[in-house]
Amino acid sequence: MMTQRTGALIFDETADRYDIRFDVNDYYGGLHCGDCMEVFVRGKWKPTRMEYGDNWYLVGIRAADLSGLRVRI
User: Where is the DUF5348 domain (predicted)?
Assistant: First the structure.
């Protein structure tokens, strides 16, 4: 069984996509459409996935800015 890791969503402007920061120099490596994760909202972990339309978004998550959201993958 794979261990889940918890981090924060950040936007990588050089890659033009979101990434997960686990620690100071520890990153997931860039998120792509269809990547699944859980996001911590209203005190609960909620399953979601990253998608791109007019902009990047998390399916079923309403947030003006995804940066800083607590996620686990």
Answer: 7-73
Q: How many CA atoms lie within 13 A of 70 on its CB side?
A: 8
pTM of the shown model: 0.92
Q: Quote the DSSP letter at residue 66.
A: -
Banded pLDDT at 64 (limits 50, 70, 90):
confident
The residues, ordered by sequence, that sit 6+ positions from 17 with a Cβ below 8 Å of its Cβ are 11, 30, 31, 32, 56
- φ, ψ of residue 17 to 5 degrees: the values are -155, 165
Task: Indicate the range of 2-6, 27-31, 44-48, 69-73 predicted with least confidence.
Answer: 2-6
